[in-house]
Design brief:
single chain; 5 helices; 61% helix; 12% strand
């Protein structure tokens, strides 16, 4: 539609939205790896095959035994960890456990921000489409000319009755 400035703005917004999303995901992955490595170093955690619940639980209890004791006390037997080397953890200090949990929460917060970048891309798509529609309508109004049309119409309402008419149409 001849509006290269608008196209540039929407294209730049698209690129920035995707770059922001990629950067956010990369940073979130880095922080996640960092807090897991920290747990391996300070709590003797085996890193393989752990879900997000495990990584959350180890930040709230000094060791697997304290965790299991609390869950047994609450009669929540379904979430107990088997006390073996694969599930074992024991923090070397309270400060390190607290620092770990802060790192984990920060990584989760950063990961949660990806929705804003995704939303920015979607909103940019919608705004671009609406703007293109507006420009197309504006352009079409500029080239459309006013005209009169006349047509002859016939209709059969019943088997014996026929209708003939002249229609006039004014286009703006």
């Amino acid at each position: 539609m001849g509006r290269n400035g608008s196209a540039s703005v929407f294209a730049a917004a698209e690129v920035l939205g995707w770059l922001g999303l990629i950067a956010n995901n990369s940073y979130s992955s880095f922080l996640t790896s960092e807090y897991k490595t920290y747990a391996v170093q300070h709590a003797s955690v085996q890193r393989k095959n752990k879900d997000s619940r495990f990584w959350s639980d180890i930040g709230k209890f000094d060791d697997i035994y304290a965790y299991n004791a609390k869950r047994q006390q609450q009669r929540d037997f379904a979430v107990l960890y088997e006390e073996n080397n694969e599930n074992y953890w024991k923090w070397d200090s309270f400060d390190n456990r607290y620092k770990y949990d802060s790192k984990r929460l920060h990584a989760n917060d950063i990961d949660g921000k990806k929705v804003y970048y995704q939303l920015a891309v979607v909103v940019n798509h919608l705004a671009s489409a609406i703007h293109a529609l507006y420009l197309a309508r504006k352009h079409n109004k500029g080239i459309q000319q006013s005209s009169w049309d006349m047509r002859l119409d016939t209709y059969g309402f019943q088997t014996n009755n026929r209708y003939a008419g002249i229609g006039l149409v004014k286009r703006f």
